[in-house]
Amino acid sequence: MSDEKQMLRDSAERFLRDNYDFADRQASVNAGEGMDANHWRAFSEMGWTAMAIPENAGGFGFGLADIAPLIELFGQYLVREPLFESVVLAGGVVIAGSQAAQERYLPGIIDGSIIATIPQATAAPLMAASDSGQTRLHGDLQFVPSGGSATHLLAQVRYEEQLHWLMLDLELPGVSRSSYPSHDGRRGAHIAVDVPFEQASLLLSGASADLATQALYQRAMLVAAAEGVGAMQGALDLTVEYTRQREQFGQPLASFQALQHRMASMLIQTELTRSLVLAACKAWDDHADNAVQLALAAKAKVDAAARSVTQEAIQMHGGIATTEEYRVGHYFKRTALLESWPLHRDALIAEFIKRRHP
């Protein structure tokens, strides 16, 4: 890791440690807020919203391997703001689009005025069709992660027998959303669209859109995997700290060999998955031949390991782990949701096997 990227990680860890208080997070969740506007502003001021944007467009041009340590920190501190959905995922599709699209949307992503999210991989595309001489865009998206917090949605559209991508302003008249809390502290949304369709709003079309779709959800797998590793690390750290403080039979729980072995297993799983995720991110950045298989393997491995590690953490904490006021149970909730984003683990494994044995 270069000095510049190490500084980015260190500054991020300091900020989150000093400012992302878990009690404040829960107060915001209980107030029905999907994200903290002050935190988002700070992310932009520190340059995090520009990390994945190319240098010639005003960003830093970092690859996934460079950003993965920061994504881990977001998992470790249970950050709710959809930074990577906006910058790495939606931003990646904008970067692949036309020069006009980049000039229209990248400045807003960089300065934080655009908070974009993406639909589930299994979501049906919106439809553009003529009605009384006017072409309208219409459709319903039943679950949009962080849709209750975003200002824009990167939407897939079927128009003239082709698939396209466009950036949809969620404040447009004709766009309605029903926001609801998800069990990981964020706010999802059901979004209904019925607006005039303008071809000028398209980012990508045809074969380019198909390629962007594949790349988008492969990047999403790696983002989710890196966040899952961070959640595993957070659950492990809390468990080690708790067993050092909690006493039984006159000595700390951490002194019991059986618990030491279980925590050692948690550590091994965390480090193994971290190595696999970083290798997959590097393969993606290098356009390696096995990049997609590594991404599938990394996401499937993290899903399984994160469930195991967070369940162990809950068991070793006992009843306190099930309370809303204690952090460890929230790692389990977040990783449980990540198991199905952007695709369920069973689908990932099936795709991995298919690619290994066509």
What's the CATH class label of the largest domain? Mainly Alpha
Total tally of structural domains: 3
Radius of gyration: 21 Å
Low-confidence stretches: none
Look at the structure and give the mean pLDDT.
Answer: 94
Tell me what portion of residues adopts beta-strand conformation.
15-25%
Query: Might you state the CATH topology name of the largest domain?
Result: Butyryl-CoA Dehydrogenase, subunit A, domain 3
Name of the CATH architecture of the largest domain: Up-down Bundle
Question: In CATH, what is the homologous superfamily of the largest domain?
Answer: Butyryl-CoA Dehydrogenase, subunit A, domain 3
Main sheet specs:
8 strands, mixed
Percent helix, as a range, is 40-55%
Instruction: Choose one word for the global shape.
Output: globular
Number of helices: 11
Distance between the termini: 37 Å
Secondary structure tally: strands: 10
H/E series: HHHHHHEEEEEEEEHEEHHHH
The class by helix and strand makeup works out as alpha+beta
Brief summary:
Helices cover 54% and strands 17% of the residues. It has 11 helices and 10 strands.
How would you explain this protein's 3D organization?
The protein folds into 3 domains: about 5-115, Orthogonal Bundle (Butyryl-Coa Dehydrogenase, subunit A, domain 1); about 125-205, Butyryl-CoA Dehydrogenase, subunit A, domain 2, CATH 2.40.110.10; about 210-355, Butyryl-CoA Dehydrogenase, subunit A, domain 3 (Up-down Bundle), CATH 1.20.140. It contains 11 helices and 10 strands. The chain has helices spanning about 5-20, 20-30, 35-45, 65-75, 85-95, 100-110, 205-245, 255-285, 290-315, 330-340, 345-355, and strands at about 115, 125-130, 135-145, 150-160, 160-170, 175-180, 185-195, 200-205, 245-250, 250. Strands 1, 2, 3, 4, 5, 6, 7 and 8 form an 8-stranded mixed sheet that branches. Strands 9-10 form a two-stranded antiparallel ribbon. α4 crosses α7 (about 205-245), α5 packs antiparallel against α6 and α7 packs antiparallel against α8 (about 255-285). The chain is globular, with a radius of gyration of 21 Å. The two termini are about 35 Å apart.
